[in-house]
Amino acid sequence: MRILITNDDGISAPGLEVCQQIASDLAGPEGEVWTVAPAFEQSGVGHCISYTNPMMVSEMGPRRYAVQGSPADCVLAALHDIMVDCPPDLVLSGVNRGNNSAENAVYSGTVGGAMEAALQGTRAIALSQYYGPANRDLDDKWEAARQHGLDTCRAILDADLWGNDDYGIFFNVNFPPVPGAEVKGRRSVRQGFRRDMGFGVKPQLSPSGRRFLWVTGAPQQQPTAPGSDADVNLAGYISVTPMRADLTAHDVLEPLKSIE
């Protein structure tokens, strides 16, 4: 198997090393792992692409490239240039520093990279490590992802639920904020929503008197609806959420016919 790995934390991020380990074990001794990742951190860029600016690509080593762009840019660079003669069988995006459960998935560059792969017709899995009081002070904060990432990816591949729809399926996986030995298992769940937990801004004046705005987040330990991703993560389970790039609110289409 030939696997492409990318992320949104940047090519030097420790989570990418965890992803490399998962991908290497998944690909096997006869497989290949290619890295095409952002040269600098791209957290929160979502599915952004550098449509109006060129991207510089730097070869860092064998099958290892840094791209001055977003995770989606990295996937495009890999599929249409770097790996055009040897396309990947699978894209792994992550392992992200922090969770991409609930509304975080909408902003996530990690999820954006997997989404772009799916739009290009390539199987893809986004991987993120939830942080919390039980794991943020561990020597290896990636312990849950490192210990359970390979089996989780294999289980998704074995299920073979990608389908052939125009908007292809990709999977959003979040490892719970607990040590590896305390992971209780996997749950296939929907995306949740943290109420009253959205992003905001905080103004600040610079020493020169210029006004700047910092984007602010919120605590990530508030549960979502029962049986959704962040809910099971906080209960110690790995969440596996199937996603599509189709943004249509299908449940509203029929009622909307009243305006025709």
From TrEMBL:
<keyword id="KW-0479">Metal-binding</keyword>
<dbReference type="GO" id="GO:0004309">
    <property type="term" value="F:exopolyphosphatase activity"/>
</dbReference>
<dbReference type="Pfam" id="PF01975">
    <property type="entry name" value="SurE"/>
</dbReference>
<dbReference type="InterPro" id="IPR030048">
    <property type="entry name" value="SurE"/>
</dbReference>
<dbReference type="GO" id="GO:0008254">
    <property type="term" value="F:3'-nucleotidase activity"/>
</dbReference>
<feature type="binding site">
    <location>
        <position position="9"/>
    </location>
    <ligand>
        <name>a divalent metal cation</name>
    </ligand>
</feature>
<feature type="binding site">
    <location>
        <position position="43"/>
    </location>
    <ligand>
        <name>a divalent metal cation</name>
    </ligand>
</feature>
<dbReference type="GO" id="GO:0005737">
    <property type="term" value="C:cytoplasm"/>
</dbReference>
<keyword id="KW-0547">Nucleotide-binding</keyword>
<comment type="similarity">
    <text>Belongs to the SurE nucleotidase family.</text>
</comment>
<dbReference type="GO" id="GO:0000166">
    <property type="term" value="F:nucleotide binding"/>
</dbReference>
<comment type="function">
    <text>Nucleotidase that shows phosphatase activity on nucleoside 5'-monophosphates.</text>
</comment>
<feature type="domain" description="Survival protein SurE-like phosphatase/nucleotidase">
    <location>
        <begin position="3"/>
        <end position="195"/>
    </location>
</feature>
<feature type="binding site">
    <location>
        <position position="8"/>
    </location>
    <ligand>
        <name>a divalent metal cation</name>
    </ligand>
</feature>
<keyword id="KW-0378">Hydrolase</keyword>
<dbReference type="GO" id="GO:0046872">
    <property type="term" value="F:metal ion binding"/>
</dbReference>
<dbReference type="InterPro" id="IPR036523">
    <property type="entry name" value="SurE-like_sf"/>
</dbReference>
<dbReference type="GO" id="GO:0008253">
    <property type="term" value="F:5'-nucleotidase activity"/>
</dbReference>
<keyword id="KW-0963">Cytoplasm</keyword>
<protein>
    <recommendedName>
        <fullName>5'-nucleotidase SurE</fullName>
        <ecNumber>3.1.3.5</ecNumber>
    </recommendedName>
</protein>
<dbReference type="InterPro" id="IPR002828">
    <property type="entry name" value="SurE-like_Pase/nucleotidase"/>
</dbReference>
<feature type="binding site">
    <location>
        <position position="96"/>
    </location>
    <ligand>
        <name>a divalent metal cation</name>
    </ligand>
</feature>
